[in-house]
Specification:
The chain has 494 residues and is α/β, with parallel strands linked by helices. Among the domains are: 5-161, 3-Layer(aba) Sandwich (Rossmann fold); 429-492, no CATH class. 31% of the residues lie in helices and 25% in strands. It is built from 16 helices and 24 strands. The strands form 3 sheets. It has a 15-stranded mixed sheet that branches. Helix 2 crosses helix 3 and helix 8 packs across helix 9 (242-254). The termini are far apart.
């Protein structure tokens, strides 16, 4: 059966009493999650949600989120998402005229009234209804493999908002790739703050502890709550965005806390620099630390075990080579193409080879790479074909080394990861940002203790025109990692 919800049925049959999800102090077995989903599915059906409907899901990362997701899938409907960080601010950036119902928490349902098309919906369900664990039978609707399993509305911060659509077949394929590349053990207990990977864990059959974090702004999460979770649940793996890890690490170093039993840390969604990795090693001394490079449209693309970094790698980082993303995984092909091409369209293999370069924009294709956006909005700018095979343009700059490993240089508009990476490899420098302002390269720091002349001496390969200091560099709310350059420019008055 193509429907992802059927995987819950299979896992319930194989391991009914195994713990599936842990939220705060509440544990849910696969059988208990199965019962919640079966009951909630019937509740949604009684309210009028039907196969083929699109349901806007406004639920933070929680057991309720996965119960909602699986219930909607079981019906044969499509759950639609917005990132928690811009639910309020982005409600009017999308049309939502094709949405049939809403499932959400109270405050997000109230926010939805900002949008005229959502305001008049008849079916608005408070997710608190998804808690019934009485015995029930979960019947799962068969769906076509190309039916959308998840639709995600982007924030539109880099232009017109786009809608990504991931089919059941796509997510099943992605789950298999993650199972193969992330080396799970049946007895693993993973702390996770990344929704798509938690979904993968349910698919694989791994126990996941949902991080007790602030999902509207990860950087404002309470470290004491998360540390308590690690200790209480005997966590041996962590899958978290750098923003969450930063909160944990800073608190632990300040309070001389170490976790000897955590054997694996996986992180992605933002730049991971050498000085931060050194801090991770202090707090998790026995852990293999792996960075995952990917995007909403393609996950994963590359991964790298930080423990394998060599002295030669460190020298390359210090001399401006960039951030080491590592070996290509998951995708069928990863190439670098010339920058400055706005629209590519259809290419022959020969024409494609002609625009491939040693340093350029990273493009990928494969089963785990989205082939287009809903309504083709953004397709011309972000997709192209080579002899009929669709490629995705990541908008990231990179290069390969002699061992075939991928190095990142940043976004096309901010190609300065090499400068930042070199600084972080030489100093414990804190948050940094580098950008171009009318032809001048500006470096922005939070740490005012490092002298300007020393910085210029240590990164003499970079032509920094100005160094500015701010109290706090603004970052995105999704990962609390990526610099919000628009807001930073406002702070600097440029």
């Amino acid at each position: 059966m193509n429907n992802l919800a059927y995987k819950l049925v299979q896992n319930c049959e194989k391991m009914p009493n195994k713990i599936c999800l842990i939220e705060k102090n509440q544990k849910y077995t696969y059988k208990e999650l199965y019962n919640i989903v079966a009951n909630f599915k019937n509740y949604l059906l009684n309210l009028g949600i039907r196969k083929g409907d699109k349901v806007l899901v406004l639920v933070p990362m929680s057991v309720n989120l996965y119960a909602t997701l699986l219930s909607i899938w079981a019906i044969g409907a499509t759950p639609c998402f917005m990132d928690a960080g811009f639910i309020k601010s982005g409600m009017n950036k999308n049309d939502f005229s094709d949405i049939n119902a809403i499932v959400g928490i109270t405050k997000y349902i109230i926010y939805s009234n900002i949008n005229k098309n959502l305001r008049n919906l008849k079916i608005k369900v408070n997710v608190s209804k998804a808690k019934t664990m009485s015995d029930a039978t979960l019947e799962v609707e068969e769906v076509d493999k190309n039916v959308s399993a998840i639709m995600t509305y982007t924030s539109g911060t880099t232009g017109k908002p786009k809608i990504t659509s991931r089919t059941h077949e796509f997510l099943i394929s992605q789950g298999k790739i993650l199972e193969e590349t992330l080396n799970y053990d049946n007895n693993d207990i993973e702390l996770s703050s990344m929704p798509i990977f938690t979904l993968s864990n349910i698919y694989i059959g791994i126990t996941t502890v949902i991080t007790d974090g602030n999902y509207t702004d990860l950087g404002k999460s309470n470290p004491e709550k998360i540390i308590k979770q690690i200790n209480l649940n005997k966590i041996n793996r962590i899958m978290a965005a750098p923003g969450i890890l930063t909160v944990i690490v800073e608190y632990c170093i300040k309070n001389n806390i170490k976790f000897e039993n955590v054997k694996k840390i996986l992180t992605g969604g933002g730049a991971v620099f050498v000085d931060f990795i050194d801090k991770l090693k202090k707090v998790f001394p026995n852990s293999v630390i792996t960075t995952i490079y990917g995007s909403t449209e393609a996950e994963p693309i590359a991964e790298f075990e930080i423990n394998n970094v060599t002295n030669d790698d460190l020298e390359k980082i210090k001399s401006g080579h960039g951030i080491l993303a590592g070996n290509i995984v998951g995708v069928d092909d990863c190439k670098l193409i010339q920058t400055g091409i706005s629209v590519i369209g259809e290419l022959s293999k020969e024409d494609f080879d002609a625009i491939c370069v040693d340093y350029g924009e990273i493009v990928v294709t494969g089963k785990n790479v989205l082939k287009g956006y809903v309504g083709e909005v953004g397709d011309k700018e972000n997709k192209f074909s080579v002899d009929g095979i669709k490629y995705h343009r990541t908008g990231d700059l990179g290069t390969f080394d002699k061992d075939g490993r991928l190095w990142l240089r940043g976004r096309i508009k901010e190609p300065y990861f090499n400068i930042e990476a070199a600084l972080h490899a030489k100093f414990d420098i804190g948050k940094t940002a580098v950008f171009d302002n009318d032809g001048k390269i500006i470096l922005v720091l939070e740490n005012q203790n490092i002298k300007e002349n020393l910085i210029r001496k240590e990164i003499d390969f970079a032509k920094i025109d100005e160094i500015k200091y701010v109290k706090k560099i603004p970052v995105d709310k999704r990962h609390s990692t990526k610099v919000d350059y628009k807001e930073l420019r406002k702070i600097l008055g440029i």
